Amino acid sequence: MNAPLAELIAPIFCMVVEANPAVRRELSFYLQQPPWQIIAEVATTDLAWERLVTLRNTPQAIQWVVMGLPLTGRGHGDRSGLALCQVLKATDPTIKIILLADLRDPALVEARKLGIEGCFARETPISTLLAGFNQILQGEIIWSPSLTTIGERSAEDRSAGEPLASSKPMGKRRPAGIQQIDTLLIQLETALRTETLPWFDRLVIQGRCRELRAARWILTQLAPLPPSSLPSSPAASMPEWGSSAVPSRSSSLPSSERTAPRIFSSPLPSSSLESRSKLVPPSSRSPLVPQPQAMPPKKVQDLIFERLASKLRFELNNAEPIPLEIDILRCDRKQELLYIVLRKVETLLAELDLAQVEPQQLQVKRNELLTDLWEASIIDFLGKYYTLRDGIQTIEVVPAVLHSYAIVQRDILSKIPLVPELFAYLLFQIPLVPAFAVESPRPSSVSPEQVDRALVILENLVIQIANGVIQPLLNQFADWEPIKQNFYDRRHMTSREIERFRNDLSWRYRRDRWFETPTHIFESQYRLWILSDRGIRRIAIYAPRRQELETLSGIPLAVTIALEARDALSPRLRAAFSLLGSGVVYVLTEVVGRGLGLIGRGIAKGIGDAWQDRRS
User: Fold this and answer.
1) Strands across the sheet with 64-67, in order?
2) Distance CA 225, CA 492 (A)
3) Alpha-carbon distance 366 to 109, whole Å?
4) Are the beta carbons of 300 and 248 closer than 8 angstroms?
5) Which of 265, 259, 251, 266 is nearest to 290 (CA)?
6) Rounded to an integer, what distance in angstroms lies between the CA atom of residue 438 and that of residue 576?
7) pLDDT at 276
8) What is the pLDDT of residue 445?
């Protein structure tokens, strides 16, 4: 179903039932486009039933239920997933239920007998999932053939007493193995978010997570997907780069033509960009990146947004000693904020495309674009009408925060690099990486180097805008109790910890302004914040900054002069000290040493003569 037709259909009210908050948020993110409308997100079967009963006789009665809970077991409520499906169908047969199931679950046979309208594997590409939803919307019943086959075969095998393990080669069992690892990782990461977890248990679980990530990487390297499961189109050959997609509301492309990442499989370890700490242009040798062929700008955008969205499911702790404003947020709030900023960037690109902005206008409109992105993110994250009470006075938070624009512009927005270049690449495919830095003989806008460079610039943009959203909140409402309860991590709840955190940020701003920024300009590099499987990290990329170097003055200029003097003098001083050290060694060994040796020989000779005289 195309987008214009979908918008004419009355909204379909959906409920997402998924235990993992990150996955639940992703599902809601995908379905926030016509005709679907998410009105409930729950984690257990009990809450799902409660929401269903509450909304039953309202204009927003639930019509679709998208469930990712296991069908068997009661680890997510008093009812199992299968029991919830039975109750829903018995109560209201018109409710459509769509399952995102484990391939090996034998309960799928029983679920199909209930008349459930759709069932998909959890690693189903997002384009296939949305296409299946459209078919269900038209009255069809969609069950994945592989799910049906495997579910029925599992039931037969168990009834016959046969083991579930098949004799297929390792490559054909790889998705199930990776899915098991992903499930364990989700469980362990959920346990790590428990504030009362003992420190020793936390260390053990963190070590277990590292082992599982390493095992997953090895499994991915040694066991490639079988040919039958590989996607046929270049755009769909990217499943391991990102595990989720960011649907574009402004796109006119049908869902079947979009990039098809696997929405619940963890991505491979990050590209070489994320493991380098030295100054090198980003590059990747992964064969999964599509070859430099003609690709519409919209598909390039989808490819990059999908890879970034997939990283938001992983650990978002700051892995660097440098503090960030978003470090004060709880994990779920931090994740929510980054999702919001990412969605606003996508909306902004759609508006620029609709307005037919020319590439040369992007540089002129840079500050305006960043300001609009910052304001839209604040309104969406805090809520347009969010208020606080100070005694008898009511304070509207969003207008107060927006008044801090000048400070945010000076400290954060003006420092975000390569924004016009990023938008020019995403809208017009103007290359980001110079031709001399691209390893392929014929550089293309869809080459691995270009995609990697765009990805890290976009990640840095999203993180910095998120920092800009939190900075005025910290400046004006840092110690307000409602703000602390709604947003802060428990480690930063006390007034002392909040002030310590703010002081660390203040010192970071001064250090950046006086020392680090001129150093980076002099070294022709940008330091970008990126998302990796180990958290938020900082990398360096090369970029010419000669014009900025010529405008430096005061302390920043003195810093560059000091660096140049050190570079000029340090080799000579090292050579002089090396020569002086050699001279000292020669004097000590050849002169002083020989002198002491002669003195020792004289003493020994005198002792010997005296001994002979006594004996005689």
Assistant:
1) 36-42, 12-17, 64-67, 96-101, 118-121, 142-143
2) 45
3) 56
4) no
5) 259
6) 41
7) 37
8) 57
Cβ atoms 95, 89 nearer than 8 A = yes
pLDDT tens by residue, 352-392: 988 889 989 999 999 999 999 999 999 999 988 888 887 77
Q: Find out whether 531 and 538 touch, Cβ atoms under 8 Å.
A: no
CA gap 420, 435 in Å, rounded: 19
Question: CATH classification of 12-143, choosing from 3.40.50.1220, 3.40.190.10, 3.10.50.40, 3.40.50.2300?
Answer: 3.40.50.2300
Task: For helices 170-192 and 199-222, give the axis angle rounded to 10 degrees.
Answer: 160
And the tokens for 5? 């037709």
pTM above 0.85, yes or no: no
d(CA 239, CA 220): 12
Q: How far apart are CA 279 and CA 262, in angstroms?
A: 32
**How far is CA 491 from each of CA 21, 196, 327, 332, 484, rounded to the nearest angstrom?**
21, 12, 10, 15, 11
> 85 vs 13, 72, 93, 108, 154, CA distance in Å?
17, 11, 10, 11, 21
- Please report, for the chain, the start and end positions of each structural domain, with discontinuous segments joined by +: 12-143, 184-221, 314-434+445-552
| Cα gap 286→305, rounded to integer Å | 18
